[in-house]
Amino acid sequence: MKVVIEFYRTRVADGAHALIGRETAQAADLDEAIAIARLLVRTLNMPQWPDAVTISEADGASIYSEIIAAQRGEEGQHE
Q1: CA distances from 50 to 21, 27, 33, 59, 74 (A)
Q2: What is the spatial distance between Cα 78 and Cα 40, in angstroms, rounded to a whole number?
């Protein structure tokens, strides 16, 4: 299945979020899509370390979302 993986920064005060990365990928199932997202969070060149990720099907239906823990010792320094 084709999936769209999006990475966000969030602001707790008002729930605002900003998209900082988006990739499309082919995955056999949801478990593989999650594994791809977890790999991408460590390897994509994003302007900031993301707070959350969502995975959607090609038609836009959201199938998974997760809060991402801050990268220990490097928050705000992700290149």
Answers
A1: 8, 22, 17, 24, 12
A2: 13
Length of the chain (residues): 79
The reported pTM is 0.83
In tens, the pLDDT along 12-61 reads: 888 788 999 999 999 999 999 999 999 999 999 999 999 999 999 989 99
Q: Which helix (H) or strand (E) holds 19?
A: strand 16-26
Contacts of 21 (CB under 8 A, 6+ apart): 6, 7, 40, 44, 46, 50
